[in-house]
What does this fold into?
Amino acid sequence: MANKISPQAYVDPAAKLGDNITIYPFAYIEGDVEIGDGCVFYPFTSVMNGTRMGKNNIVHQGTVLAALPQDFEFRGDKTELIIGDQNIIRENVVINRATYAGNKTQIGNGNCIMEGVHISHDTIIYHNCVIGYGSKIAGDCVIQDNAILSSNVVANPGVRVGRAAMVQSGCRFSKDVPPYIVATHNPIEYGGVNATILTNSGIAPNVQDNIAQAYRLIFNSMTSLFDALIQVREQVPDSQEIQNIIKFINDSKLGLISRT
It folds into this structure.
């Protein structure tokens, strides 16, 4: 199907557009841009150089994609923002492209990024995540599949949020949030297993119990984290979810949020 581009929008002739794209009045699209089929851009969206977008994304008013990095190390290098398919990006979102030549900020598929979110340079958001109203994600962060950041969350540079984890409203954190948990309060701390998402994801009740047992050892035991992981391996029945937890923790460079 033919594209529907308002004559009041600006689309650089060098931009590479797929089919069945809708661009409303006063949208602005630069030349070094690639957009897949079926995308929609509402008024006053800005799609800047370096954007590479897949199919069927919806971008709402006032959003800026591939904005220049807010990083003192940025020297004008050619970098990218990669966006997958079927994302909903609501009003007044800002997503920065990467800082250094050849690097990428990456957004996967099926994410919902709500109003007023800022996603900084070189951050990676995987698939089917929800980033709530006004949340701010600093540079070099990683948000894994099915994670939820509620409203006004502040993720400081380099942190990771594990798959199917939830960070409650207003939390600020500078360490990693492991998979399948709820993180709550300020200072942020472990608030239990995210049973709702686990159930909705089809995780069996016995596996959920095993995840809870693993986190009791990790967060509530009086041993070191190293010894707690040994206990998890020895005492908790193995599954892919338990392996995900162990790998996430072993890969952590910043350490975990508070153990209470």
Remarks:
- The chain has a mean pLDDT of 97.
